[in-house]
Amino acid sequence: MRKRSRRGRAALAVTTAAVLGGAGCDAVGGDAHGTSGTQARRATPTAPVWDVSPASVAAVGDSITRGFDACTVLQDCPAVSWATGSAPEVNSLAVRLLGRARAATHSWNYAVSGARMADLPGQMAQAAVKRPALVTVMAGANDACRDSADAMTPVADFRTDFRQALRTLRRTAPKAQVYVASVPDLKRLWSEGRTNPLGKQIWKLGICPSMLGDADALDAAATRRRDTVQRRVEDYNAVLREVCAQDARCRFDGGAVYAYRFGTDQLSHWDWFHPSRNGQARLAEIAYREIVARGT
């Protein structure tokens, strides 16, 4: 009896080890078709779904978002801002998304004329306090629009500042969606505006000298300078795309603003560089189209 009992216990131990060994194999994914493998796949986190109907909007950026030179020479006009303005002829993004009454109480504009990407973290900190459902970003033109091409913001610094801006937002408003507009095609703005004598006089006051300085010069040096600025704008847009792609709640416009062909109707008739009311309306259209698009 004693001898048979030891043999029975040994057989049971071997059988148990075999069963547990098989289960352990499946638990670490050895059997891709097993139950535990399915559970592991179900546990994998998925990216948040983009909300095409955000309940509030905050805007950060530069003079374009402030409606600069769209109403009065060398002055902001936030009422015609593409992002948060109230002017009916613009039909701003906030109005399109929220309706006119709600936009008046649930949209905020923290953009500052002349701001560069280095200023964006501070603006994001202000916006985050409101816990907005959506934050719009349009910045980078002033990083290229310096006194000279040599003074433009280095691409590495631009990247660091943009990342810091998103981190600043995420600390207070982790679920806010972010729409990032590409930097406009500054060279096209030069080519459109240089035909207007008044515009060129305003440019001499210091508007984007790296691109607009010596507006009529077409020599090799001037062409090389403008091409250098243009390449930097393209580099900035590449940074915006790449950094935004690393944030599950960020959506880049795919270069839509950069590709938009601003004509004389879309440019301020004060400086022939900043968007007019018509141009602000076109920016609102682009943003709305990108934000309400399904998928990523």
UniProtKB/TrEMBL annotation:
Specify one Pfam family. Lipase_GDSL
This protein's source sits in the domain of life called Bacteria
Which key words are in the record? Hydrolase, Signal
- InterPro entries reported for this sequence: GDSL, PLB1, SGNH_hydro_sf
Gene3D superfamilies per UniProt: SGNH hydrolase
* Protein name (database record): SGNH/GDSL hydrolase family protein
Leader sequence range is 1-23
Q: Which CDD domains match?
A: SGNH_hydrolase_like_1
Molecular function (GO) terms listed? hydrolase activity
